[in-house]
Amino acid sequence: MMQALTMRSWLATLVTALLAVAIWPDPGQSLPQGAPETVCDTMLPFHSGGSVLPQNSVSPFSVETSSSTLGQGQTLRVDLTGVPAGLSFGGYMIQARNRNPPHQIIGQFGPARDGTIKLMNCENSVNNSATHSNAGPKQQVILEWQSPVDFLGQVVFNATIAQSYNEFWVGVPSQPVQIVRRDLSAAPPLPTQSPSAPAGTTRAPYVPPSYVAPNNVVAVSSDPIYNGCGQSKNCFGFPDGCVATKSCTSITVVTVRGDVFEFEIQSGKGTNAAYVAVGLSDDAKMGDDLTTECVPENGRVNLYSSLTSASPYSAVRSNVNQNSARLLDASIVDGVIYCRVQRDAVTNVQGRTFDLRNGKYHLLVASGSSLKENSVGYHDIGRLPSAQPINLAEVQDLSGSSRLLIQLHGAFMIAAWIGTTSLGIIFARYFKQTWVGSQSCGTDQWFAWHRLLMVTTWSLTVAAYVLIWVELKQAVWHAHSIIGLITVILCFIQPIGALFRPGPNDKKRPYFNWGHWLGGNLAHILGIVTIFFSVKLPKAELPEWMDWILVSFVVVHVLVHLIFSIGLCLNHWQIGGMASERHLSQRANTFQMGDMSHHQQHAMRNGMSMERKMDAPYAGMRKGLLGVYGVVLILFVTVLILLVVLAPIEQFLGKS
């Protein structure tokens, strides 16, 4: 079996090399007919499996235009020259393409008087590309190009130029040329285009320096990057399980041959990715990861190595030797970024050693739609670490790491400190004189609700704290964790202190009341502050605008407290006035009590008892405000929990 594979690989290499020589020969051995029309889309002398790759260095040749602005139907001059002047080259191919999607081929080239230019009909359009007719050495090529009469916008000329068989540059660009409106009668005609031929193709252009176009004959669903996944190479991407369906938004492929470690990284179609990257992580968390970034810049895909930082999130390139990885292949087609990279087996970064031969690492795939100065932007398109660390040489099926424990931790804490604690404090402070005489489980209504809500807070907080310890498996100290720990301690001792509550008439009862009030409110405030700090945590992947939702909650909560406090003051004032009147009335009528019968005295006492069992004034207002606050509180809690569970929410909204 191995011999058959070896023979097959040898034959494939031989056939590819022969095709390469036939399609794009050395200037000294060139065929005179130039590039065939089979390479219209790729502009490559051979496909990505060829034995010779395009040069990654800056091209010593340039594409110059006689003008940066051109009217519809007008003609300009295009020069292919060496830098410095006098540098010779052999074969070439050139096209003009729309700078904006769909990047179709634009316009027509005119024939040369001396017959040194061969015109090509790519994608059923006449003379829209040009190549050499004589592969001998040349120092300059001058072409004439006419813009179409029905196009407005910018075009860029791209050329493939070969200096020798194994030295050629793909996608040498010109400066953009702006096509503007012009009177059609002034356009000097070039060879006419077939009336039935479209104005341009709809194929996507290459991007230098080493474009690898997809096989246009093969269906999109059979992307070759998935070939051999789980058999000869490790493949991992997001969303989780996408490798099996060949539908990854971003994917990385790792192939190991001895001490050669190759990474293929690719973004998904239609994602508008500004970069795609893969990290090697010890813990599946963002931070201290050796990252390989593929970033399209200035018409080419560039390779960067970086080390990530968790707090604040950043990918720092200056810390990593950029020679620790080499770009072997790169392309961007229809917005799909692809690169093939070889990394050193051992890379040392700031005292840390990434040993790909002996170490085990989580693969962490990420892509985003923005870039920063000297860094990639936030991975808003998506990010997923592999569930288990692996030795890269061990081929296996990989699955994504679950964020369930982090999501449950966040959801429980929000439900506890935004929801149940806020409502429980409202009941204890403002509803002791409401639902008077009505009891639940042998206690007053306000106390029954307060106890239920606070026990729920305690249970959710303890559960959330245990979950995050199980997830992290170690202490991580920052503002969120420190303030959160203080909150958990205060929350834990509150119900324990309540068990030793003195009796109502005990002289120590006021001290308990003040301590219980202070501990509960302090824990509530710190709990909300802790949630604010969670927004900045890279692991939480929460949007920055979540801060404004939390601020809105605080404003609503304070406003409700203010309204209830005003009502409480009015209650005290009104009850105090009624008590004063009752005291005067009792003094004025005390002498009558002796003359009352026993039945009359009993009736008066019953009346006073019934008055004590009545709700304090404005009970209806308090109940109504409580109902409104409860509904608003449920909305806040629901929205915040959804942000936690669906994080990163930008990715979810992008899909919807």
TrEMBL record:
Its main location: membrane. The chain crosses the membrane at residues 408-431, 452-470, 476-500, 512-533, 545-570, 626-649. It is a multi-pass membrane protein. GO terms for molecular function: ferric-chelate reductase (NADH) activity. Keywords: Electron transport, Glycoprotein, Iron, Membrane, Oxidoreductase, Signal, Transmembrane, Transmembrane helix, Transport. The keyword Transmembrane applies. Its EC number is 1.16.-.-. Its cofactor is heme b. Residues 25-195 form the Reelin domain. Residues 372-570 form the Cytochrome b561 domain. GO terms for cellular component: membrane. Residues 1-30 form the signal peptide. It is an enzyme of class 1 (oxidoreductase). Residues 245-368 form the DOMON domain. Gene3D superfamilies: 1.20.120.1770, Reeler domain (2.60.40.4060). PROSITE patterns: CYTOCHROME_B561, DOMON, REELIN. This is Uncharacterized protein, isoform B. It comes from Drosophila melanogaster (Fruit fly).
